Amino acid sequence: MIKEKGILFVLSGPSGVGKGTVRKALFEQDTALRYSISMTTRNPREGETDGIDYFFKTRDEFEKLVSEGELIEYAEYANNYYGTPKTYVQQTLDEGKDVFLEIEVNGALQVRENFPEGVFVFLIPPSLEELKDRIVNRGTETEDKIKARLEAARDEIDMMDKYDYVVVNDNIEHAVKKVQSIVVSEHCKRTRVAKQYKQALEDDEK
Amino acid sequence: MIKEKGILFVLSGPSGVGKGTVRKALFEQDTALRYSISMTTRNPREGETDGIDYFFKTRDEFEKLVSEGELIEYAEYANNYYGTPKTYVQQTLDEGKDVFLEIEVNGALQVRENFPEGVFVFLIPPSLEELKDRIVNRGTETEDKIKARLEAARDEIDMMDKYDYVVVNDNIEHAVKKVQSIVVSEHCKRTRVAKQYKQALEDDEK
């Protein structure tokens, strides 16, 4: 039996852009996506539950899992580890279900190395979009201030290049709708669909 | 002033798959897509209006437009010409609006040559999808009958390769939702979005 594999979707973006808020709103909707819960050594914040918001681990536990190759990406921020357990992602994709990760930019780059066939979505702040629109739509009318701000935004613009899609977080509802559309349309991609048909034709020849 | 260009979406598929029905249902929804009306020399059918369903032309008028290079694609079926006028498509894209074409397979291939940056969607009948699923999901259980039918479907499967997306017309509502998702997600594609940001950065450097 040849089972079609699920697709790995990764939502990332600059710190403070609202990745967590978009992810929460997405999972409040009806979705077939499976959310891969991150692992961390930081203390639970008020209202956070182990196994729902994060898997909370001690540093020793976390480092042991890293040494066993059980994380597909991890990083240290403010003296705490954050990472993505491998088993859940791999098993869920093998079962033909889509997995959704919401992680920091460095983590996303690590995941891209291990899952190049994943779909990477970069969330940008509306301020970056507005900045661009002011320059693109007004052309020569740009002021020095805009130029300086765009220059400062250059790092975020460079980060985009590693992603498949860019979604502006101008409004949670819009951003969620765009992510949902990306999920639907990725399943319609000819490169994916044709592979399934060609597989069927090959079986047909056996 | 640098204006962002619109995207050309082309819906095509084997004859009888229901392209026209999906297109009509799509335009009954709220959409920013502009429909490019085809031109034909066939007689209007009952209920069809010139300038809404088709631009109805005589053979002489049609051939004159062809010789003037005014059609981006055209073909003859059952002694009648069908084609897509160029001016409307080009002007609308230049204004930054998306254009939607619903045309036959041969026409779609002609459009691809002239608009390689267009987005091409192939609509397939549910029978083809069911056939594939029966083979892919059951593996060795396939019967000779299924094999023969898949063999016969090989032409349609080969046609897919020229398209960017494949949508199953199992249900009008589903098919329309998928086409809408493709439109939204194409606007989020990094390759398109990053180009706009890089354009802004270049202007910034002037």
From TrEMBL, chains A, B:
Residues reported to bind ATP: 13-20
Alphabetical UniProt keywords: ATP-binding, Cytoplasm, Kinase, Nucleotide-binding, Transferase
Pfam families: Guanylate_kin
Stretches assigned to the Guanylate kinase-like domain: 6-184
Superkingdom, taxonomy of origin: Bacteria
InterPro entries in the cross-refs: GK/Ca_channel_bsu, Guanylate_kin-like_dom, Guanylate_kinase, Guanylate_kinase_CS, P-loop_NTPase
GO molecular function: ATP binding; GMP kinase activity
Entry EC number(s): 2.7.4.8
Gene Ontology CC annotation, any one: cytosol
Keyword Transmembrane helix: no
Reactions that this protein is recorded to catalyse: GMP + ATP = GDP + ADP
Primary site of residence: cytoplasm
Location(s) in or outside the cell: Cytoplasm
Top enzyme category: transferase
Cross-referenced HAMAP family: Guanylate_kinase (MF_00328)
Entry's family note: Belongs to the guanylate kinase family.
Role: Essential for recycling GMP and indirectly, cGMP.
Stated name of the protein: Guanylate kinase
Species the sequence originates in: Salimicrobium flavidum
